[in-house]
Amino acid sequence: MHKWTIYDYDSLQKQDNLVDNLLAYALGESVTANLTHARKNDKSDMRELVNKFDWSRTPLGAKEDWPEVLRLSVELCLNSRFPLILWWGSELTMIYNDSYIGHLQSKHPGALGTSGKVVWSEIWDVIGPMLDGVLSTGEATYSDDLLLFLERNGYAEETYHTFSYSAIKDAQNTIVGILTPVAETTERVIAERRQSTLRELGRARSDSEQKLLAQVNAVLKSNQIDLPACAFYTLNLENHSSKILATNVERDTPFHQSLSSTAIMDQLWKVASSAKPARLDDLHKLLPALPEEVLKRTPTRAIIHPLTTHTETEWLMFFSAVSTNHKLDDNLQTFFESVGTQIAVALKDARAYEHERRKAEELQELDQAKTAFFNNISHEFRTPLTLMLGPIERLLNLVQDGESHEELQVVQRNSMRLLKMVNSLLDFSRLEAGRYDGQFEKTNLSEFTEDLASSFRSAIESAGLELEITCRTNNSAYVDHDMWEKIVLNLLSNAFKFTTAGKISVNLYQTDNNFVLAVSDTGIGISSQEQPNLFKRFHRLRSEGARTHEGSGIGLAMVQELVRMHGGTITVESETGHGTTFTVTIPSGRTHLPAEKVHSTERTKIGSRHAASFIQEASGWNDSQSASPIDEENSQSQAIQRIVIADDNADMRNYLTRLLNPLWKVEVVANGEEAL
């Protein structure tokens, strides 16, 4: 800190900026950057006032009798472009320069030559002891952004100042006055505080309206200087009701109840209808239960802002009392509007999140109900199907040929198909419910895969296709036999469904850390638009040229889940008209699997549980396997009309042919295009 001793007036006159440089050093760059350089030219209003002032009526006495140190100090003060004030003598008589007038405002020019105790009586309890301390000890003080409530415009204004009190000594080293460079930092401090509030409101985000409003309340309560009493309302246009959503006023208090009073509600509805902000200048008349304000006095004014973020049935309004320590200027009105808008936007987002969450929960409940239904109905279907399949198989053994044998084969084939679909639904529901427990056994994967693929050979070759199987690894893998069987058979069945010419290839090989199964075909391929949906449950791929459009749409979705349970992935590469390749990759070893579900003993003999149902269903897609001979001569001799039957199920085509052929000429085709 600094003690100011004036020695040579002439040297000060030689260097115009010496005082400014000294003050910049004293206050620091961060403060001097905020100082107002009020004097733009050499003309000084304060110099003229000081020269004309009758100093003989003050403790300083006539100007011509002033001691040298006082004259030099006054010249230093008047020459500076920084706001400076001199406090002189025991009465601390005030002399100041042009730049300091902005600090005084309505107190100027009456403050000139008056005791500081009188001029700044409203803050003397703060600055008086500091000045007395400098006068008695000579020790300088420094205050940074000090809060002072100045009565300079008819109200106790919240202001902030950075300043230093430094002693001035005469030639005898006696303290005769105090020099104070001062910078008002009110705008910066208040702007930073308001920006902090808006920033915190911007961070208030939640997927729940209730949680969001709790955050908003906390932010509003943290700044009751700018928001002494505020509330965020919703007005319902349908039933003309209102509700406080957020406020920084404590609940269960008279004032909180007053915020919902008829008087305030009437004002809110008026503002809503006009869609323009409104000022309330008699707040104390509208709200009889006003609280004591945080700063000095009870607020008498308020402002209401209608917010643009609203719906057809709801208006959002922001109400805030105005601090008696603030002027209701454009900056404050913009701040109020920004607070309300921030809350409205956050509320809109929270409601959107809440709506989406409710939708997701409803969908999840629906999904769980659907899964439970499939699980239950699958169990219910399996019992009658099992009771049907047993007698059908015995009847087939008794009736070896003829029309009855063919019809029993149709019944058996479609009962097996229905049982396969029921089992698939049951498996899928168990997968989704997390109740599909795998048992991963050490397995010769090449041998197992080749056996599964070979079971399809007769169906594939009878359709005029070629089946190529290449398994090139002798190492054992840990797989669940039931799952792996469904993976291989589903992929082969899928390839057969969409391939009418060429070949189907099954390729198993091993990389450094993985086993890779690739099932390829030369079929119709899958368009790029369809590929993202392939593994979605219940999505059915409908492509012209397929053997059938039958299916539940869960085969590939289930394959993907079964592969994931092995810690693996499945991908697809396809080009329309050139075929498709599904690639399954599972890690080698056992560390990726649940330890309690891994069995190290290798099973040497593995039978297939599901191949028969897959093959029977695939055979039904092959016309050469299921077509019934038509008595062409008898049909034509008796026919009175020609009938074309279009159906993608071969058994259905043959069944209808047998029914209709005796009376009409019947032609059967697999799809509508062939029928046309």
Q: Brief description of this entry?
A:
By secondary structure, the chain is an alpha+beta fold.
N-to-C span: 104 Å
State the helicity in percent bands. Answer: 40-55%
Which term fits the overall shape? elongated
Helix run count: 24
The portion of residues forming beta strands comes to 15-25%
Q: What Rg is obtained from the alpha carbons, in whole angstroms?
A: 46 Å
Mean pLDDT: 82
Low-confidence stretches: 1-19, 22-42, 624-639
Give the key terms.
single chain; 676 residues; alpha+beta; six-stranded mixed beta sheet; five-stranded antiparallel beta sheet; 24 helices; disordered N terminus
Descriptive overview:
This protein is an alpha+beta fold and 676 residues long. The strands form five sheets. Strands 1, 2, 3, 4, 5 and 6 form a six-stranded mixed β-sheet that branches. A five-stranded antiparallel β-sheet has the order 8-7-11-10-9, sandwiched between helices. Helix 14 runs antiparallel to helix 15 (403-432). It is 43% helix and 20% strand. The protein contains 24 helices and 21 strands.
Write the topology of this structure:
Layout: E1 4-5, H1 9-14, H2 18-27, H3 29-32, H4 45-52, H5 68-79, E2 84-88, E3 93-96, H6 101-104, H7 116-119, H8 124-137, E4 141-151, E5 156-169, E6 175-184, H9 186-203, H10 209-221, E7 230-236, E8 241-247, H11 254-258, H12 262-274, E9 278-280, H13 283-286, E10 301-306, E11 314-322, H14 330-398, H15 403-432, E12 440-444, H16 445-454, H17 457-462, E13 466-471, E14 476-479, H18 481-497, E15 503-510, E16 514-521, H19 555-565, E17 569-575, E18 579-587, E19 598-599, H20 611-620, H21 623-626, H22 632-638, E20 642-646, H23 650-660, E21 665-669, H24 672-675
Parallel strand pairs: 1-5, 12-19, 13-15, 20-21
Antiparallel strand pairs: 2-3, 2-6, 4-5, 5-6, 7-8, 7-11, 9-10, 10-11, 12-14, 15-16, 16-18, 17-18
